[in-house]
Amino acid sequence: MDEQQKNPVDVERTYEQAAELMQPAKERTGQTFAPAGEGTRISSQEVSDIVDKALDSEAPEAARSEVVQQTVEQFKTLDVDSKLAVLYYLYEAMGESVTPAAPGAADIELTNAFFSEFNALPQGEAQLEAMRSLVRCDDNALGREYGKLSENNKLLIWYLLAERMGKDVIAMPEDYQLNDIGQQNLVHVKELDFEQQITFLRDVVEPMGRNPIQRAV
């Protein structure tokens, strides 16, 4: 890995450029979710160390412990809307702490292609159905654009979608109640350390969408 990749300032700049390009101009407010509490905060040096590990490998095996695998398997049992809710709550709680693992390997052109498809949707139910289709791995244009992306880009996609919810993307209903197993899954993820949480997110968002190669099978 060269020094440019390992520089946290360069990583942050790459994320800012990606986020600026991917969001509609009227929504470029610079607002992001803040961590839910002091327990979710980590130092800049810890973030830098995790960035190095995240960019060095697709998913560090040391972080893919048995408890992470069990938490991923539990996530897979959730219904589509519960999966969306867990992702939303996690990204809201973790805030920008999630993003350092994503932009270092960003492919702006491919990610823009995804958002070109998504941003063309009318705000509301069409957006919700599009996100559901990603979780279901439906074979459609949006899913295929998502399927082309690297794990890092997929992490960034879901961060940006969560960040835009309630702005130009349909928000979670205020009265939405996550079911018991979804709440259990959320608790289990929050009990993981930060690097394990990133590994969990990698493992659950990577298979979503539709890999174009699968169409020929």
Structure write-up:
The protein is mainly α and 217 residues long. It is globular and about 40 Å long. The longest helix is centred in the N-terminal third of the chain and has 15 residues, at 8-22. The protein has helices at 3-6, 8-22, 44-56, 66-76, 80-94, 108-119, 125-136, 141-147, 151-164, 180-190, 194-205. The protein has a single domain (3-22, 38-216), classed as Orange carotenoid-binding protein, N-terminal domain (orange carotenoid protein, domain 2). Helices cover 58% and strands 0% of the residues. It has eleven helices and no strands. InterPro entries: Orange_carotenoid-bd_N, Orange_carotenoid-bd_N_sf. Keywords: Antenna complex, Chromophore, Membrane, Phycobilisome, Thylakoid.
Number of helices: 11
CATH architecture: Orthogonal Bundle
Q: Helix and strand succession?
A: HHHHHHHHHHH
β-strand number: 0
Rg calculated over all Cα atoms: 16 Å
Tally of individual domains: 1
CATH topology: orange carotenoid protein, domain 2
Distance separating the two termini: 35 Å
Could you estimate the helical fraction of the residues in percent? 55-70%
What structural category arises from helix and sheet content? mainly alpha
In a few lines, what is going on in this structure?
With 217 residues, this protein is mostly helical. Helices cover 58% and strands 0% of the residues. It starts with a helix and ends in a 12-residue tail after the last helix.
Give the helices and strands, then pairings.
Elements: H1 3-6, H2 8-22, H3 44-56, H4 66-76, H5 80-94, H6 108-119, H7 125-136, H8 141-147, H9 151-164, H10 180-190, H11 194-205
Helix pairs in contact: 4-10, 4-11, 5-7, 5-9, 5-10, 6-8
Family: Belongs to the orange carotenoid-binding protein family.
GO molecular function: chloride ion binding
Keywords: Antenna complex, Chromophore, Membrane, Phycobilisome, Thylakoid
